[in-house]
Amino acid sequence: LVAELGLYAVRPDLEGLGIPQLMRVMYPVLQELGVPFGFGTVRHALRQHIARLLGRPGLATIVSGVRVRSTLREVHLDTPPTRIEDVLIVVLPIGRSMSDWPTGTIIDRNGPEL
C-alpha cells in the first residue's frame, strides 16, 4: 500500500507552491498514517525538471521502467476499461527506506487516476 501524492491537487492551500512544498506538508501526515511510501507520476519529458525540483538527494527517487495501470473513469463498450501508462514514478520514502521499494514493473492503482 502506498499513498498517491496526486491528491494534493484538491488542497487549494497547496496549489502553485510546487512539489517540494507539497512533500514538506504531506510528509508528516503520511508518517502519521503509517504509509511506507508516497508516489506520484510524471511524464518522461519532465525528468530533468522534476529532478531539479526535488533538489536534496534522498528526499525522493525517480524510478523508470515501471508502468501504471488505472481504470478509466468513463467506460465505453468499444474501448478497454483500463489504461496502462509508461511514466516516471517519483517515490517518497515515508515509513521505509528506498531499498524496500518493490522491484515490480507495474503499479496497479486499483481504480482511476487521482
UniProtKB/TrEMBL annotation:
Pfam families with a match to the protein in the record: NodA
GO cellular component terms attached to this protein's record: cytosol
GO MF annotation terms: acyltransferase activity
InterPro entries, per database record: NodA (IPR003484)
Protein name, UniProt field: NodA
